[in-house]
Hints:
CATH topology: Porin
Oligomer: single chain
Helix content: under 10%
Radius of gyration: 19 Å
Strand order of the largest sheet: 1-4-5-7-8-10-11-14
Strand content: over 45%
Largest sheet: 8 strands, antiparallel, barrel
Number of helices: 1
Mean pLDDT: 89
CATH architecture: Beta Barrel
Amino acid sequence: MNKLxxxxxxxxxxxxxxxxxxxxxxxDPGFYAAIGYYDVAPKSNNGVLANTFRSDINxxxxxxxxxxxxxxxxxxxxxxLPLTKYQHDVKLDGxxxxxxxHRPILLTAQYHFLPDSAWQPFIGAGYxxxxxxxxxxxxxxxxxxxxxxxxxxxVGQFGVDYYASAxxxxxxxxxxxxxxxxxxxxxxxxGSVKVNPWIYGVSVGYRF
Length: 208
């Protein structure tokens, strides 16, 4: 959560450094897109595997893209996904034992407050899917076949957009992704991991 606060603060400071703009037609319908940099930070203690080993998944940050459409002054919907796959190391009882890659796709509907202001806080909710791939084993699991299932779940979101002009905006936001995956080792189920990451960062966007 400390990284979440830092990311949101960085977005706010970056926006504050840009000269203010007067209220414009920020709520007009239309498409928008944004490029950003976002950290996927799984919760700590991701579950016990084989009824024995505590699993922990580290965080990773990658460039991302957002594509959305604003329907009216308050409501919009968007898709968010990384430009490159996220990669995480997995520890079992503190020993690095595997790595995984994944590419989440998160869809959210958003409600924007203060639609006539250059500063527009918003909240959102939706659903996400994630495809896990590239499982590799090392350390105590070296030489075994690890399979981590794909997952899906609820997504919650909050953040703020700052419009530097009628078309260009800076965003700082965070999402919570309720994601769990089943795990198999050498074809046998050994439990599941609750990843449940916070996904947070900043982006720069353009309204078409």
